[in-house]
Specification:
Distance between the termini of chain A: 54 Å
Distance between the termini of chain B: 15 Å
Strand content of chain B: 15-25%
Order of helices and strands of chain B: EHEHEHEHEHEEEEHEHHEE
CATH superfamily of the largest domain in chain B: Response regulator
Oligomer: heterodimer
Shape of chain A: rod-shaped
Largest sheet of chain B: 5 strands, parallel
Number of strands of chain B: 12
CATH class of the largest domain in chain B: Alpha Beta
Structural class of chain B: alpha/beta
CATH topology of the largest domain in chain B: Rossmann fold
Largest sheet of chain A: 5 strands, antiparallel
């Protein structure tokens, strides 16, 4: 059952029950009061009648010889002055009764009601010992019947009063009240259901929003109006939705990045694979001239070497980019920049000589040392310098410089077009694919450098002008902060 | 088998590889390494080409841009690319390429596709009726072999093996490739039947020296 229905049923049901109970109690009390007052006046009238009759009988008694005489006097006297709503009996025998009812005296005397619940409405002394009264039902009418033997005589007096109306009025009132209450209940039901629906609307909205989120629509938010508990729930709900959306977006971004990386890797593998497979097949199938055979073999060797370099770099990148693995945080030691430069130069000596390039180094004031991992830093410098070597024209100059703002590698090479700058940190991205590949590149160098910088808590800045050259600065000295 | 084929591929070793393959099969290959260079060449030079092998990702103009220019010159195009996904294939073929070959590819596959496209695009009167090796003439349509003008009886399978060797002379045909052609399915298992057929062909045509056995690989018909 719905909450709305529950609330409505409980409220309206209880209200109806209580109102009816009150109405019944109220009507009963009213009826008692009215009956009491009727009884009171009837008793008074009966007492007065009995008193008067007794006095008159006393005055005339001596003229009446026998019982028949008393009977005769009684009947005629009664009919002349007492007949309304009354009957007269003599020694249990009916003398005068002009009503349409017949009364059973014995029953009256035995089953007289004491009307204890009406006593509080009666005047002092109206109810005395000889009187017996009851409410009887005859011919569909309710009668209040009072009986009193007249003292010192054989006369007995009955008064009655038709109280049917009184009871019927009560019943009618009860029914009318019940009908009214019912009508009110229906109205209440209507108003209350509107109200409750309104109160519960935010809850319904919450539930609908939750369903949509479950269905994958993470942008859903609910309105936060008012200041009640439901609003608090709505606020928490929105906060939760925001978190979930953020997480899902992160996941999607990571996923997309990995997918791109994998796609790029697969594509990157295809060119060397095509060459290796093609040349191997050629060697196997065709009798090539000696020179061609040597070319094919050296190409196969060269591509295999490139693949193994690629896999080594990929592994390094993978190791460095682990989100939660241990031992990933860069080891921080104080290193001499001069020594790092020398090591880089030594590692790249052959390539530098081949292309006839000059490598200048410069260590500025306050930049003689750097905090970091020696192997990673050399790797970073070698990768950056390798890029510079590839970009430079034969005979050019490459500068390694350490200054307050960081270590930078500059070349006078071809530069990077402005629109490519944003993409060059992506793995496998190459500005000039065919040239880079011929130069033995895999498109991983800068991605690796960025990763190394990130592990140290540093940032990479690339400045480039096409045709003029490129400077990559690693903000590792004064801008360095401890990585978390 | 005479045809001039453009090879447009930016990776130099791959370009050379394709050229060697084509030249071995008797075609003339003309290499290009970037899109701009090719489109300049097409604009300046009126030379006729029979086919173009076109890489999609090229420096300068890419393959999809070059395709309409080549088709304007009535040069059929086979796309040669690392992109093996279906949308790229469909795009290439829809835009008018004759075929689509995904890297890495096998040599024989390349040659068969080149041959098929050339066949399809060649005018009927240019189609060769007879293949000649030394003093042997082979008529593929009639399925007749003549040596020095004398017809020599060939069984169907022997004929198919001979045809394959002659079509791709100077290239080793692997035993499983023979089986593939003979039965039309990937056949793994007894490849010795091929040796029997080859032995018969050698005997019938006196090709003992012409058809060379390459150990553990297959056979090569050598003509220089």
């Amino acid at each position: 059952m719905k909450l709305t229905t529950k609330i409505l049923a409980a409220t309206v049901g209880l209200l109806f029950l209580f109102s009816q109970l009150f109405s019944i109690w109220n009507l009963t009390e009213t009826q008692r009061m009215r009956l009491g007052s009727v009884l009171n006046s009837e008793l008074a009238r009966l007492n007065a009648s009995a008193q008067r009759f007794s006095e008159e009988f006393g005055r005339n008694r001596r003229y009446l010889q026998d019982e028949n005489g008393e009977r005769f006097w009684g009947r005629s006297r009664f009919q002349m002055g007492y007949g309304a709503n009354a009957a007269l009996y003599y020694d249990g025998e009916e003398l005068s009764n002009i009503s349409s009812f017949a009364f059973d005296l014995d029953y009256l005397k035995e089953h007289g009601d004491d009307f204890s619940e009406l006593q509080k409405y009666l005047d002092e002394g109206v109810w005395h010992s000889g009187v017996s009264a009851l409410i009887g039902e005859t011919e569909g009418r309710k009668l209040l019947i009072l009986y009193e033997p007249i003292g010192n005589t054989k006369f007995e007096l009955i008064h009655y009063r038709d109280v049917t109306e009184l009871y019927e009025e009560s019943r009618e009132l009860f029914l009318r009240g019940g009908g009214m209450a019912l009508a009110l209940v229906v109205l209440l039901l209507f108003v209350l259901s509107l109200a409750v629906r309104r109160i519960l609307r935010p809850v319904r909205e919450l539930s609908a929003a939750a369903a949509r989120i479950a269905g994958g629509d993470y942008r859903v938010r609910v309105e936060e109006r008012g200041h009640d508990e439901v609003t608090e729930v709505a606020r928490s709900f929105n906060e939760m939705a925001r978190q979930v959306e953020g997480q899902v977006q992160n996941l999607a971004a990571t996923n997309e990045k990995q997918r791109r990386l994998l796609g790029a890797l697969a594509h990157e593998l295809k060119t060397p694979m095509t060459g290796i497979q093609g040349y191997a097949e050629l060697l196997q199938r065709v009798e090539l001239p000696q020179e061609r055979q040597q070319e094919a073999l050296s190409y196969i060797e060269q591509e295999c070497k490139r693949l193994s370099r690629l896999s080594a770099k990929l592994l390094q990148l993978e190791e460095l980019s682990g989100e939660s693995g241990e031992g990933i945080e860069a080891e921080k030691k104080t290193l001499e920049v001069e020594r790092l430069f020398a090591e880089t130069k030594a590692l790249l000596q052959r390539q530098l000589v081949e292309k006839g390039l000059r490598l200048e180094t410069e260590v500025g004031e306050g930049a003689a040392t750097v905090e970091g991992d020696a192997d990673l830093l050399v790797s970073l410098l070698v990768n950056l310098t390798e890029n510079a070597v590839k970009a430079s024209a034969p005979g050019g100059t490459i500068r390694l410089a350490a200054a307050k703002e960081g270590i930078s590698v500059s070349d006078e090479g071809q530069g990077i077009p402005q629109e490519e700058l944003a993409k060059i940190l992506e793995p496998f991205y190459m500005v000039d694919k065919s040239r880079s590949r011929q130069a033995g590149g895999a498109g991983l160098g800068l991605a690796l450098c960025e990763q190394i910088a990130r592990l140290h808590g540093w940032s990479l800045e690339i400045q480039s002008k096409p045709g003029k050259g490129t400077t990559v600065t690693c903000h590792c000295i004064s801008g360095g902060r401890r990585s978390g | 088998m005479n045809a001039d084929i453009l090879v447009i591929e930016d990776a130099k070793p791959i370009n050379e590889l394709i050229c060697i393959n084509l030249e071995t099969a008797g075609y003339r290959a003309v290499p290009f390494y970037d899109g701009d260079e090719l489109s300049r060449h097409l604009a300046e030079d009126g030379a006729a080409y029979d086919l173009a092998l076109l890489d999609v990702m090229l420096p300068g103009k890419d393959g999809f841009t070059l395709l309409p220019k080549l088709r304007e010159r009535q040069i059929p195009v086979i796309f040669l690319t690392a992109r093996g996904d279906l949308p790229s294939k469909i795009k290439g073929l829809r835009e008018g390429a004759e075929d689509y070959l995904v890297k890495p590819f096998e040599m024989l596959e390349l040659l068969v596709r080149v041959e098929k496209v050339l066949d399809r695009c060649r005018k009927p009167e240019e189609q060769e009726e007879c293949l000649r090796v030394l003093d042997v003439a082979i008529y593929p349509k009639e399925r007749i072999v003549r040596k020095a003008g004398v017809e020599i009886p060939f069984k169907p399978m022997e004929f198919d093996c001979l045809l394959l060797l002659v079509k791709y002379k100077n290239i080793v045909i692997r035993r499983e490739e023979f089986l593939n052609v003979l039965w039309g399915v990937e056949f793994e298992g007894e490849t010795r039947t091929i040796d029997v057929h080859i032995a018969r062909i050698r005997k019938k045509l006196d090709f003992g020296d012409v058809i060379k056995t390459v150990p553990r690989v297959g056979y090569r018909l050598e003509v220089h």
